[in-house]
């Protein structure tokens, strides 16, 4: 069965994966804006109890 022969396809897959991860990924991630963590604390909210109709 020729489709189980990994000889040409393994090299193609590894080459494309390395190309994407080494060359293209830093270029793409330089365009993305990341949200910096803020030092503000969020106000603590207390949950309100539910009014169950059957109790």
Automatic annotation (TrEMBL):
Top-level taxon of origin: Eukaryota
GO molecular function, one term: proton transmembrane transporter activity
Pfam families recorded: ATP-synt_8
GO cellular component: mitochondrial membrane; proton-transporting ATP synthase complex
Keyword ATP-binding applies: no
Regions crossing the membrane: 6-24
Similarity annotation: Belongs to the ATPase protein 8 family.
One of the GO biological process terms: proton motive force-driven ATP synthesis
Membrane topology according to the record: Single-pass membrane protein
Protein name stated in the entry: ATP synthase complex subunit 8
Alphabetized InterPro entries for the sequence: ATP8_metazoa (IPR001421), ATPase_protein_8 (IPR050635)
Region described as Disordered: 35-55
Compartment annotation: Mitochondrion membrane
Biased composition (Low complexity): 37-49
Species of the source: Serilophus lunatus
Keywords per UniProt: ATP synthesis, CF(0), Hydrogen ion transport, Ion transport, Membrane, Mitochondrion, Transmembrane, Transmembrane helix, Transport
Leader sequence residues: none
